[in-house]
Amino acid sequence: MDSIRVQGMAPLQGKVKIQGSKNAALPILAASLLIEGQVLLENVPKISDVYGMLHILEELGCHVRWERELLRVDSRRAKLGGISAELAKSMRSSIFLLGPMLSRFHEVTMEYPGGCVIGKRPIDLHLEALRRMGVQFVDENGQLRASVKALHPAALELPFPSVGATENVIMAAVKTEGVTLLRGAAREPEVQVLCEFLNSCGASILGIGTNFLRIEGVRHLRETRFRIPSDRIVAGTYLLAGFSCGGSMFLEEAPLRHMEAVCSVAQKMGATLTVSENGIYAQFPERAGELPLVRTNIYPGFPTDLQSVLLAVRCTGRGKTLVQENIFENRFRIIDELKKMGACFRMVNEREVEVTGVPKLLGASMEARELRGGAALVVAALGAKGESRISGRRFIDRGYENICRDLRELGARIVSE
């Protein structure tokens, strides 16, 4: 079962609860190696990337147990060991293990991280920052080997606010004696959540939410219980999906304070949003209104992870929209699949595409090749006339607990097969 079948043109109506955040959970799970004890995590999303990270932790000697909706991770018996080559190659998030393993074991050998085919996504920023903290890297038979006698603090400045590099520095520095200063840090909510988690364990991180972090190393981190926030990208996906076929929905536990850019775009396209303590209620027009220009950018700008979904929505929106991708150079891979449905695009260059809205898309057979693009194809299919089939569901499962279940709760005619 690796495909999704959608019968389009059913208006969305109802309520859906937003799952826990993928991009917050994965670095926190990696950081659990820093706590020689137990951490209890609430609201961890049950997605394939999380299961992959948990499998790696078990390989390293951690004890992992689900207790209904609570996840217990005990790393007291963690040991230096190999990281599954298959999982490392398939998961970009395996790179998060660099900082924690160097802090605890002073060495690590792993495959170069894989993940979605959305761009080059080099890890040079991670490596250069950790080199400044004393780490030596060598390539051994195509594997990355890192070692350090003892991490030391440093004054660092990232030339680009990489989320992953920021998180690796944080995890390497929290138990390193002395003060590490990090300028040019990423400000994404998931970075803030990692800092809040580590501070709840006794870390000393100042400047959370800014691009300048001060990390004073502590000797020990204590056990904690922590709740993973809701996933802003999943919430944004379902919010934008409302423009494919109209209707209204309530996004329960949507993290509004982290969704300002997405909500602003939704309102420009004609959605009416009502905010409450428990989430967002959204009403949608029959057809998305004009939106001349959208640029992806680092937080708090419009997230690159929702660019593909917005592109799918603009296929039937009014007028022309210029979409500029400023983070990853290969985010337009779904265009050929959307053209199968009758979408109209004009490539300006590798970073810009102009989409002209057509009255209606037609159902088609399409292939998902990466996580967010796969979700975007599902969104496009919701508003298409007739039936669509999207293969490659395994990519979508990397970030969505059960996209078919969630959309069925909103009235969509969608099944996995």
Structure report:
The protein has 417 residues and is an alpha+beta fold. Helices cover 30% and strands 26% of the residues. The chain has two domains: 3-19 and 230-416, UDP-n-acetylglucosamine1-carboxyvinyl-transferase, Chain (Alpha-beta prism); 22-227, Alpha-beta prism (UDP-n-acetylglucosamine1-carboxyvinyl-transferase, Chain), CATH 3.65.10. The protein contains 14 helices and 23 strands. The strands form six sheets. Strands 21-22-1-23 form a four-stranded mixed beta sheet. Strands 2-14-16-15 form a four-stranded mixed beta sheet. Helix 1 (22-31) packs parallel to helix 2, helix 8 runs parallel beside helix 10 and helix 8 runs parallel beside helix 12 (371-382).
pLDDT averaged residue by residue: 94
Task: Report the uncertain regions.
Answer: 115-120
Helix fraction bin: 25-40%
- Strand content is 25-35%
Structural class: alpha+beta
What's the architecture of the largest domain, going by CATH? Answer: Alpha-beta prism
Distance, first to last CA? 5 Å
Concise synopsis of the structure shown:
This protein is α+β, with helices and mostly antiparallel strands. 30% of the residues lie in helices and 26% in strands.
How would the blueprint of this fold be written?
Elements: E1 3-7, E2 12-17, H1 22-31, E3 38-42, H2 48-59, E4 63-67, E5 70-74, H3 85-90, H4 98-105, E6 107-111, H5 124-131, E7 136-140, E8 143-147, E9 155-157, H6 163-173, E10 179-183, H7 189-200, E11 204-206, E12 212-216, E13 224-227, H8 232-245, E14 247-252, H9 260-268, E15 272-276, E16 279-284, E17 293-295, H10 307-314, E18 320-324, H11 335-339, E19 344-349, E20 352-356, E21 365-367, H12 371-382, E22 387-391, H13 393-396, H14 403-409, E23 413-416
Parallel strand pairs: 2-14, 3-13, 9-10, 17-18, 21-22
Antiparallel strand pairs: 1-22, 1-23, 3-5, 4-5, 6-8, 7-8, 10-12, 11-12, 14-16, 15-16, 18-20, 19-20
Helix pairs in contact: 1-2, 1-7, 4-6, 5-6, 6-7, 8-10, 8-12, 10-12
